[in-house]
From TrEMBL, chains A, B:
DNA-binding region extent: 35-54
InterPro entries found in the cross-reference section: Homeodomain-like_sf (IPR009057), HTH-type_TetR-like_transc_reg (IPR050109), HTH_TetR (IPR001647), MT1864/Rv1816-like_C (IPR025996), Tet_transcr_reg_TetR-rel_C_sf (IPR036271)
Ranges for domain HTH tetR-type: 12-72
Keywords: DNA-binding, Transcription, Transcription regulation
Pfam families attached to this UniProt entry: TetR_C_33 (PF13305), TetR_N (PF00440)
Top-level taxonomic group: Bacteria
Stored PANTHER family: HTH-TYPE TRANSCRIPTIONAL REGULATOR BETI, HTH-TYPE TRANSCRIPTIONAL REGULATOR RUTR
Protein name: TetR family transcriptional regulator
Record organism: Streptomyces lasiicapitis
Length: 192, 192
DNA sequence: TCGATTGTCTAGCGGTGCTAGGATTCGAAT
DNA sequence: ATTCGAATCCTAGCACCGCTAGACAATCGA
């Protein structure tokens, strides 16, 4: 059985390689540059190999998104746990979120802009996505305010962050006042 | 000269037809279905004709976006002017914005999700875009609060609306509680 | 050693945005 | 009325896309 196990390991390793390469290529040249041909060339296999791991390009995007969600959850939790007090935690969380989006635009797109074929806000939502939301919820429920459902508050806060992240990156908001916008957002939304 | 004038009129009319057809097709079947071939077929001309009006598909998206911006500005102003008091105006504005995004998803995408080659938040930003932002600013500056720059406040409020609009439509936020989210957002952001 | 299974590749399908270059139409000047 | 020149439009094609059928080679179990 050891031979089969080795093959399985190698297969899993190759799958990781595909996802990592897709992510790398997307961050370097944008998702438009991530074509099945280029991706196949980079991993030094032919195109059909991609389809033996994923149903199509969409699923590859989805795989990148899941990895990114785990990473973002960790980043948000790390930032929050390093801050003292609910208010400081929320500010740190907001900065960490926007920082992640800024540093990993392609991954962020895979998670929240592109179609990766993933289910959101449902029972069959993949665990990393649920957990990323949970990471936001943990710090945000502290400042939701009395009588306000923490989940609902988190959704609104998240939506605001998402709007800031996407509009800023696409040049639709001037890049300069990012920090002031974060402060205003936290000031108003968070109930001390 | 009348012949030339007629030709110019016909050309302008055909350009409107292209933009209207692109918008229609995008709303019916999504922007992916708006290919130069299909678009050319619908307007009953060959593909190269499109390129005598626009540099490429991107510019067509941009043209749709400009028309949409004018429409959205009007919708927002109409809703705001029908409400009494600053607080009610902002609620009406938020509902009108989200309603527009919901009813015209393809146009909304052309404006805020896709690349239409338009300049945002700069001097050379097209007038309809500036005016759409101005329409938000008019009602929102009433509730920005003392010492808060109205433009900055509008940016934050707009970003929140944009996040709600896009995350809801892509299924990343549960569709049910949309109204409650709007109320929470207005409650917290607007200074009565 | 042989047959079957697994793995991988070449080649190709129908589609995309975009364009070169030829054909046609049509106004204007003789 | 005829001819010339310019403007207009279309056919055909380029390089690329996501995806897949089917041929081929390598590997495994008997």
């Amino acid at each position: 059985m050891s031979v089969q196990e080795r093959k399985q390991r190698e297969r899993a390793e190759r799958e990781r390689l595909i996802v990592a390469t897709a992510r790398e290529l997307a961050e370097q040249q944008g998702w438009d540059a991530v074509t099945t041909r280029r991706l196949a060339e980079r991993i030094e296999y032919s195109q059909p190999v991609l389809y033996s791991h994923f149903r199509g390009k969409r699923e590859i995007i989805g795989a990148v998104a899941l990895g990114g969600a785990a990473e973002m959850a960790a980043a948000v939790r790390a930032a929050a746990s390093a801050a003292d007090g609910p208010r400081a935690r929320v500010t740190a969380l907001a900065r960490a979120y926007l920082d992640f989006a800024d540093r990993n635009p392609a991954v962020y797109d895979a998670m929240f802009q592109l179609d990766g074929g993933l289910a959101f806000a449902q029972e069959d939502t993949p665990e990393p996505l649920k957990d990323a939301f949970a990471a936001l919820l943990e710090s945000l429920s502290e400042v939701a305010g009395d009588g306000v459902h923490p989940g609902l508050f988190t959704e609104v806060f998240w939506a605001a962050l998402h709007g800031l992240a996407t509009l800023t990156r696409s040049g639709r908001l001037p890049p300069g006042d990012a920090e002031r916008r974060v402060e205003l957002l936290v000031d108003r939304l968070a109930v001390v």
